[in-house]
Design a protein that fits this description.
The complex is a heterotrimer. By secondary structure, chain A is mainly alpha-helical. In chain A, 75% of the residues lie in helices and 0% in strands. The chains are: A mainly alpha, B mainly alpha, C alpha/beta.
């Protein structure tokens, strides 16, 4: 073998090795974060941490019950707003590929997908907080705007992948449009649509920025959606940047719960995608 | 015409004829009921169609609404401060002086530095998963790990950065003789770099997998090594797609709020170098909008949001257009 | 004298500016098997899909002219009524993948929200599956998914699905082109049985099939109905030279 060829092969191997090393090192910070959060958080989590609300600095035994409840309420409300709208828009876009409205609507979804969460927060602040004051519902509206593009996109993509023969079979039986969609198309694409919904929930479950000046946060257990409400990501932020060590300790516990919760949502998404798929 | 029956059929097969006639009467009874409900169905159908159109229209209205809201609410600042607002170097709400340049600079510095750090890694992942090891448990693990990077909430990155990165950067700063603050633009960029890896990596991976194998085989058959195929076939073929991935990552970095807010130091002076503390547009909004009670102050922050909106939208639309063009 | 069930008068259809079916007029007699044949792209499938208004589902597709079903113009009716009376079977078997075999047969009722008592449903399922000679093969696996069957069985399931609605006309769009020879002959045998109760219009590009199964044959060429006659007459003594060229294989 000539040295020239040896050199070229060597260069190729070196590049491959470099790729492997760089790729592997991407995992390091992730592992570091997971390890650190679990290590620091696991000792903080116990029954009273989950069932107690915030205590003033200096008092022991504060918890995140109020934030857990708030997160669940705010996310559920956001989903309640965004999921039906998102699926409907997704159906429209999936079934009307070429209309003018579809073009503009699709462009809007693309734009919405790129808007930073803080900007959505500003808009919800202007729309809801300026006239009515801080409230949980304003946070839900901000989060629902962030969910929309994900739900729309996944619904649209799912419907586009379903073969036309399925639609034809349904139409040929004399089914009206809404029944073709609701009884045939949506059930056949349910795994794609649901995984989009779960993905969007997973995405907003960890959002803090849009909640800073909408849901705002509060120290008490509250289920009144017209009043400020605490959320898990916000409580992590609040505790983390506080100057008090007890609060920082609580922040680790809250971080671990938040992390587990987001991971769980992501795993559920994967399971749905795999298990519920209709064999075409 | 219609009622008369074929004579030949009658003579040929009496029984089957009876089946036809009995079926026909049965059919008429059935279809009468069916038609009645079908009229109801047709009404529902048009209601359904119309509501789909209305909801889709709402998407357009929503985005226009966001844009208009931001513009209208920035008017006080636009009027009071003019275009010079974006070039002003001082931000002092107490004395009513508003200049956004420190934040524009802070955003640009953190984002591009983050991009610079993350691109080699994200491209490596893209090539690793797209070309070298597309199948197997190891690449699956890497793929899931990279997806996980995108799933971790940004407030957790911020907190981890606060607890782990800031002390590390402090040590580094002591070694290279800059004030050992730990917080600052450099720290933010490091955190951002980790956070934006998945966006360009996953897009790059799918683009690389779309390279026709015939092209690669042609190069191999000429005696090219793997690296030469990557350099002279795969990278030129996917160049626009890889660029789009970088754009999407950039869009993420520009708008990222929480992680940056927690480690950048939140000072409003002009950044002197990459180790200075500072603020990005997103972080200054996050810090100050809640307490910005003065009219112009509030509007000035919203105007920052408007700028952020425009920049990220343009970047994302360009990125998306490139992807659509590439996929076709 | 035969009674006409479907009658097209100056029927034209278009994809955008593309004129696909040109001025077709045809009388289709009740309880017959009509084969529609011609080279690919001659508009035969488009014409077939026009009869039950499936054509207009394609974006940009339009149609002009009249098609009568029992003297009623289907172009004036709502497509839902038309499709309830004219069933259709497609080129590739397309059972609903989310439904069982049983539910696939009564899909036309179930998915249209037509409520039937259990006994009536069972009767329809058994009756329809028997008609397509599938009952004995699947009666023990009615709860399995429709996609679990073989290609030929799936296609017969799709025919059963159309038959279950008790339509007057059944349209077949190259129903055997995706099937193996044995399944093909099973389906062809069905046509003889089905024509006792229904009128069958079958699009095929297989001349032997047209000759085997049909009573009358229509030959389409470049969007025009060139010739329409008794099948025997058409294959032995075509009147048009284009028909003759096609039958003798001079072009395809």
């Amino acid at each position: 073998m000539s040295t020239r060829i040896k050199y070229r092969i060597g260069k190729s191997t070196a590049f491959q090795a470099l790729t492997v090393v760089l790729s592997a090192s991407c995992v390091i910070p992730l592992l570091a974060i997971l390890f650190y959060i679990i290590k620091a958080g696991i000792t903080k989590i116990n029954w009273s941490f989950i069932t107690n609300v915030e205590k003033p600095v200096g008092e022991m035994g504060g918890g995140v019950a109020h934030a857990l409840l708030g997160s669940i309420i705010i996310i559920l409300m956001a989903a309640l707003i965004a999921v039906p709208i998102g699926i409907m828009v997704g159906i429209y876009l999936g079934e009307n590929k070429t209309s003018k409205l579809a073009y503009w609507s699709r462009l809007s979804v693309d734009i919405l997908q790129g808007v930073p969460s803080i900007v959505i927060g500003i808009v919800a602040y202007i729309w809801m907080v300026k006239p009515f004051g801080y409230s949980a519902i304003s946070g839900s509206i901000a989060l629902s705007i962030m969910m929309l593009p994900i739900v729309v996109r996944s619904t649209e993509e799912t419907l586009k992948l379903l073969p036309d023969s399925l639609r034809e079979a349904a139409y040929a039986l004399g089914m009206p449009f809404h029944r073709v969609i609701l009884k045939v198309i949506v059930p056949c694409g349910i795994s794609g649509i649901l995984s989009g919904v779960m993905l969007s929930v997973a995405r907003i479950a960890g959002e803090t920025a849009p909640l800073l000046f909408t849901a705002f946060g509060c120290q008490f257990l509250s289920a009144d959606i017209r009043k400020p409400m605490e959320t898990l990501p916000h409580v992590v932020f609040k505790y983390a940047i506080s100057p008090y060590n007890e609060w920082k300790e609580l922040a680790w516990g809250a971080s671990l719960i938040l992390l587990l919760w987001v991971l769980l949502l992501n795993i559920i998404t994967k399971v749905i995608t795999r298990k519920w798929k209709v064999q075409l | 015409m219609e009622t008369s029956l074929d004579n030949t059929v009658v003579t040929r097969s009496e029984p089957s004829l009876r089946v036809i006639t009995s079926n026909a009467t049965q059919k008429n009874v059935k279809t009468a009921g069916r038609e009645k409900r079908s009229h109801r169905q047709i009404r529902t159908e048009s209601v359904f169609r119309r509501s789909l159109v209305i909801v889709s229209l709402c998407m357009v209205v929503l985005v226009l609404g966001i844009l208009i809201t931001l513009i209208v609410q920035s008017v006080p600042s636009l009027k009071a401060l003019g275009v010079g607002y974006l070039w002003g170097k001082t931000w002092d709400p107490v004395r009513d002086i508003y200049g956004a340049l420190p934040f524009l600079l802070g955003t640009l510095l953190t984002s591009f530095l983050a991009l610079l750090i993350s691109v080699p890694f994200s491209f490596a992942v893209a090539i690793f998963l797209g070309e070298y090891y597309p199948k197997g448990w190891m690449p699956d693990l890497l793929k899931n790990a990279v997806e996980l990077i995108a799933a971790v909430p940004s407030v957790i990155y911020g907190f981890w950065g606060l607890a782990v990165m800031v002390p590390m950067v402090q040590k580094l700063e002591t070694v290279i003789h800059v004030p050992p603050v730990g917080y600052g633009i450099f720290t933010s960029s490091l955190i951002l770099a980790i956070m934006i890896i998945p966006y360009s990596a996953s897009l790059g991976r799918s683009m690389i997998q779309m390279v026709p194998s015939s092209l690669k085989e042609a190069a191999y058959s000429l005696g090219a090594t793997r690296w030469e195929v990557i350099r002279s076939v795969i990278i030129p073929y996917t160049r626009s797609g890889l660029f789009a991935g970088v754009l999407l990552s950039l869009g993420r970095a520009l708008g990222e709020t929480m992680a940056v807010t927690m480690v950048i130091g939140n000072t409003t002076s002009m950044p002197q170098n990459i180790f200075s503390t500072g603020n990005t547009m997103a972080s200054v909004i996050a810090n100050e909008l809640g307490e910005a009670d003065k009219h112009v102050y509030n509007a000035a922050l919203i105007e920052l949001g408007l700028v952020l909106f425009f920049v990220t939208v343009v970047i994302n639309i360009i990125g998306k257009k490139i992807i659509t063009k590439f996929s076709n | 004298m035969e009674s006409t069930i479907v009658k097209a008068v100056n029927y034209n259809s278009y994809f955008g500016d593309n004129h696909v079916v040109k001025n077709v007029s045809i009388d289709i007699p009740r309880n017959n098997v009509i084969a529609v044949m011609g080279p690919s792209g001659c508009g035969k499938t488009t014409f077939l899909r026009g009869i039950n208004r499936m054509h207009e589902l394609i974006p940009g597709a339009t149609a002009k002219g009249q098609i009568f079903l029992n003297g009623e113009d289907v172009m004036e009716m709502h497509p839902i009524f038309v499709r309830l009376k004219i069933g259709m079977v497609f080129q590739r078997p397309n059972p609903f993948p989310n439904l069982s075999i049983y539910d696939n047969v009564i899909a036309g009722y179930k998915l249209n929200g037509i409520k039937l008592p259990k006994a009536e449903r069972d009767r329809i399922v058994e009756h329809s599956l028997t008609r397509v000679a599938l009952w004995n093969e699947v009666k023990d696996s009615l709860t399995k998914k429709g996609t679990f069957l073989s290609g030929g069985q799936q296609q017969r399931l799709c025919i059963a699905r159309a038959v279950a609605m008790e339509p007057e006309v059944l349209l077949f769009d190259e129903p055997t082109s995706a099937l193996d020879p044995i399944s093909t002959s099973t389906v062809e045998e069905l046509f003889h049985e089905l024509k006792k109760n229904y009128t069958l219009i079958i699009v095929t590009h297989n001349m032997q099939q047209a000759a085997r199964v049909s009573d009358k044959t229509a030959f389409f060429y470049l969007g025009e109905l060139v010739e329409y006659d008794e099948t025997k007459q058409m294959f032995t003594n075509p009147r048009d030279t284009r028909t003759q060229n096609y039958i003798t294989g001079r072009f395809s």
